[in-house]
Amino acid sequence: MNIPKTRATARQVRTVRGTRIGLAVAGAALIGYGLLGLPTQLGPEQTLGLLIWMAAGVLLHDGVLVPLATLSGAGLTRVGSRLRPASAAVLRGGLLTGTVVTGIAVLLLKAQSEARNTSVLEANYAANLLWFWAVLTAVATVIIVVLERRYRS
Predict the structure, then answer these.
(1) Would you say 108 and 121 are in contact if contact means Cβ atoms under 8 Å apart?
(2) pTM over 0.70
(3) CA distance 144 to 153
(4) Were 88 and a residue from 11, 13, 36, 83 both cysteine, which residue would form a disulfide, CB within 3.0 to 4.6 Å?
């Protein structure tokens, strides 16, 4: 596979670096604002519970989601996908997005089945999940077909 190598200009490098620094500063400011507001909004037990929940989220992301995404990407590559790199990225992104949304939907379906108050979780999560996968598949397919046709012409 011959991918043309292009070098970024000094201006592009500065622009990307400046954008990254700006986003990092904005993110740190928002995190700081949120953390400063916690003591006024939550009690000590709720704050501890929230911090434990956030730590579990980081562990789930780094310990489960990232390795699975890496393995699935490597698996798609190893199988010998004939897709161009951009199309393969769309495929991996679609699969990853679908997997994450399915994980959330499974949690909602479980909570819905055990809910004491049926008015809290009243959406039809199973049907919505099927519609989501249908739309995700259609959009990813259209993007991949357009990218592949553009490459071939």
Answers:
(1) yes
(2) no
(3) 14
(4) 83
**Token output for 61:** 């992301």
Say which residues have a Cβ less than 8 Å from residue 92's Cβ, sequence separation at least 6.
Answer: 69, 72, 73, 76
pLDDT of residue 21: 97
* Alpha carbons 3 and 84: distance in angstroms, whole number: 10
Phi, psi of 82 (to 5 degrees): -90, 10
pLDDT, one tens digit per residue, over 52-71 is 988 999 998 899 888 888 88
Distances (CA, A) of 134 to 6, 137, 138: 37, 5, 6
Dihedral sign from CA coordinates of 16, 22, 26, 31 = positive
Contact criterion met (CB below 8 Å) for 99 and 111 = no
For the chain, domain boundaries: 1-41, 44-152
Distance CA 15, CA 17 (A): 5
With tokens 């190598």, the residue in question is 5
Say which residue the tokens 């400046």 belong to: 18
Conformation bin of residue 80: beta by default, left when phi > 0, alpha when psi is -120 to 50: left
Tokens of 11: 């201006």
Quick one: average pLDDT of 17-46? 90
